[in-house]
Amino acid sequence: MAVTTMVALLVVLGYGFVRKGLDGLNDVSAVAARGRSVDGIVLAKDKVTGPQGSRFKRIEVRFTTAAGTSYQFWEGGDADVGDAIRVHYEPGRPETASTHSETGNRMGYGMLALVGLALVILMPLVALRLGWEGLRDIRRTVRKQSASSPAHGRRGQLTDNVK
Question: How many degrees, rounded to 5, is the angle at CA 27 between CA 25 and CA 28?
């Protein structure tokens, strides 16, 4: 039961990775096709502790669209506060803003989608494999018990013990 629950959770997580990766790739393509690039300013930097004590740096960036609207976002990076940094975004969708290159974003989102796809495909296969091994072990145990039982003959049939 615990294995089944874990497999189901990993499949759902994998599906989420696939969706996020494909959505990200779509955003990167839209920015590449219709995107704008403007200079932004680094407002703050921070170090974030991730799982198992890993640490990564992120920056808060403010940029102003061609329409004159100002937006802020956090993203992984290592620029200093006050630095000018290039921001790429799709007009009308400031949530697509990124300071990373198109190639870097494609690689990141592509890897996320591939990892998700691997989880969605491989986890059920792992569960099936574990299930088959479990059934094989049960059959072996039953065969050993039947063969060693004194009330059974050579082929597992009951024998007459009457004298």
Answer: 65
